[in-house]
Amino acid sequence: MFNVNLLGSDTGRLILVDKKGNGVAGVQLPVFAKANLPLVTTVPTGGTSGDLVKIDCPSIGPIQTGDYVKIGGHDVTVLAAARGSLVVLNDYSTPGLTEIEISVGGVVTKKEFRNITLKLSADKLNLIKGESTVVHLVVAGLEKLKAPAVMTIDASGVVSMAGGNSQTITIDPSAVATDGTYTTAEALVANSAGTFGVKVTVTADDKK
C-alpha cells in the first residue's frame, strides 16, 4: 500500500520504470477526489429480513473481485454499487443479534447487526361488506433492545383499521418476550367486498 499526491492534470496512469527511468509497464487507474468518497464503512445497526440495506463505504462504483457483504456469515446479494455506497438485499432469515461483514477493496469491516423478521397472518383474507377480521403480527429479533423499536402498520384495500389505516407503534424493551419476540393484533372491517393488504415496517436503532 502506498500514497501518492496527484495534480489536477494527472490522468491516473501508473507506470513501472527501470533503473534508467524507462517505462516498462503501465496501468490506467481511476482517479477520484478524496473528499467525495467515504473514508470508513458505516452501516445501520439493524435491518429487516427481506428489505434493502444501504451501506456507506469507500466503493468506487462497480463491484470488484473480492468485494462482498455477509449477514450472519451468509452472503447477501449486492443489488447496486455506486460511488461511496452499496445497496444489498437482506435475505438472511434468522432473527436476532448477529454480525454484518463488508469487504470493499480488500478492507474488511465487521459490525454488530440486529436482524429482524416479521410474520403476518389474518383470520380471513377475502371479506364481504361489513365483515371483520384480525391480523396477527409477530416481530422477532428484538432481544436486548437498547432503545424502543418503532413499528409502522399501513392497511390498504377495502378495509378500515381501528385507530386509522396508518399507525405507528412504539415497542418498549419491556414489552419484548424473553425469546426476542413482540406480538400484537389489529382488527380490520371491510368497507366493501374484496381483498386487502397490510404493510409492516420495524426499525430498531441500537445506537440510542
SSE inventory with pairings:
Elements (H helix, E strand, L loop, with lengths): L12 E5 L5 E6 L17 E3 L3 E9 L7 E4 L2 E2 L1 E13 L6 E9 L2 E16 L9 E9 L8 E9 L1 E3 L4 E6 L10 E9 L5 E8 L5
Parallel strand pairs: 3-9
Antiparallel strand pairs: 1-2, 4-7, 5-6, 5-8, 8-9, 9-10, 10-14, 11-13, 11-15, 12-14
Describe this structure in words.
With 208 residues, the protein is mainly beta. It folds into two domains: 34-116, Sandwich (Immunoglobulin-like); 123-203, Immunoglobulin-like, CATH 2.60.40. Helix content is 0%, strand content 53%. The strands form four sheets. Strands 3, 5, 6, 8, 9, 10, 12 and 14 form an eight-stranded mixed beta sheet that branches. It has a three-stranded antiparallel beta sheet with strand order 13-11-15, with no helix packed on it. A two-stranded antiparallel ribbon has the order 1-2. The two termini are 37 Å apart. The relative contact order is 0.16.
Give the name of the CATH superfamily of the largest domain.
Answer: Immunoglobulins
Classification by helices and strands: mainly beta
CATH-defined topology of the largest domain: Immunoglobulin-like
The share of residues in helices is under 10%
Low-confidence stretches: none
Query: Biggest sheet, in brief?
Result: 8 strands, mixed
What integer is the average pLDDT?
87
Whole-number count of domains: 2
The name of the CATH architecture of the largest domain is: Sandwich
SSE string? EEEEEEEEEEEEEEE
Q: What is the count of β-strands?
A: 15
